[in-house]
């Protein structure tokens, strides 16, 4: 599976501490395992990793990570 990160997602990961910086990509690479739900009112899915939310969409064999942020902030951008 090919994974593409948006600029916002890459920027968010760079700001995190090393433990979080490794935990989030590990959760992404272990998809479809994890706490995943389909978003309501738009296309895409969300993955929950502790207090972080990862908004992503899948197109065939390509996984596009749209945004990563804290629980309360990620849905304001959507």
Mind explaining what this structure looks like?
The chain is an alpha+beta fold and 78 residues long. It has a single domain (2-77), classed as YaeB-like fold (2-Layer Sandwich), CATH 3.30.2310. Helix content is 32%, strand content 38%. It contains 3 helices and 5 strands, in the order βααββββα. It has helices spanning 7-15, 18-29, 74-77; strands at residues 2-5, 35-38, 45-49, 52-59, 62-70. It has a 5-stranded mixed sheet. It is globular. The mean pLDDT is 91.
Query: Which structural class matches the secondary elements?
Result: alpha+beta
CATH topology: YaeB-like fold
**CATH homologous superfamily, by name?**
RelE-like
- The level 1 CATH classification is Alpha Beta
Q: Supply Rg.
A: 12 Å
Question: What's the arrangement of secondary structure elements?
Answer:
Layout: E1 2-5, H1 7-15, H2 18-29, E2 35-38, E3 45-49, E4 52-59, E5 62-70, H3 74-77
Question: What's a concise summary of this model?
Answer:
The chain is α+β, with helices and mostly antiparallel strands. Helix content is 32%, strand content 38%. It has helices spanning 7-15, 18-29, 74-77; strands at 2-5, 35-38, 45-49, 52-59, 62-70.
């Amino acid at each position: 599976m090919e994974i593409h990160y948006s600029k916002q997602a890459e920027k968010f990961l760079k700001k995190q501490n090393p433990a979080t910086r490794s935990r989030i990509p590990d959760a992404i690479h272990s998809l479809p395992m994890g706490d995943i739900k389909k978003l309501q009112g738009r296309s895409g899915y969300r993955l929950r990793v502790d207090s972080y939310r990862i908004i992503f969409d899948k197109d065939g064999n390509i996984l596009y990570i749209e945004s990563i942020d804290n629980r309360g902030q990620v849905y304001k951008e959507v």
